[in-house]
Amino acid sequence: MQIDLPREVIAAASELSEDTWRYFNRVDDALMLDVGNLVQHHVRWDGVERAIGLMRDAYEGRTKRRAPLTVRALEGGRYCVLDGNSTLTVAIAAGWSVVPCLPKAV
Length: 106
What we know:
Blueprint: H1 7-13, E1 31-34, E2 38-39, H2 45-59, E3 69-73, E4 79-83, H3 85-94, E5 98-103
Parallel strand pairs: 2-4, 3-5
Antiparallel strand pairs: 1-5, 3-4
């Protein structure tokens, strides 16, 4: 899914540095996956706006960090995002290269 990111989302997300573990809980089974290998099946813009605020608050220690994204393996080394589509959209808008993910068996 190709996403056209609104300028406002890019501007707000660009303030979030790629300091992964300030946003996500450390989990032993998490894989650091390239955002280019993650396939989103939907984008909810209200969820993206909320995710920006939650990620900013987690970075600054005002709220809990989130779990890694939940993904399902696809062919060719790609993964479908099951949980965390809004967070992934923010990471893409911020220019991040990787995000922590937990693979889920199907």
